[in-house]
Write a structure and sequence with these properties.
By secondary structure, the chain is of the alpha+beta class. The chain contains 2 helices and 3 strands.
């Protein structure tokens, strides 16, 4: 996604880009465990994108949208 700038309200663009990626095996959202002293009502999410058997891109954020955007940015980076 060469021209993508993080914009949590534009997740349709992110989903469209993901749908064109070869080897995409799955996407899941997992709630992140926070320390007990965290303010009530605060929740973080981790998005895990599995692309091909050996590649997993993850991102975390205060919403599923934010976590998805960060995971897609990680997926768009060339593999190491």
């Amino acid at each position: 996604m060469p021209d993508y700038v993080y914009e949590p309200d534009a997740t349709a663009l992110v989903w469209d880009w993901l749908s064109t990626q070869p080897g995409l095996l799955g996407i899941r959202f997992v709630p992140v465990q926070l320390p007990a002293e965290t303010m009530p009502g605060v929740r973080r999410w981790r998005c895990e994108i599995v692309a091909e058997p050996a590649r997993v891109a993850t991102g975390e954020g205060d919403s599923r949208q934010t976590a998805l955007c960060y995971a897609v940015l990680a997926l768009a980076q060339p593999p190491h």
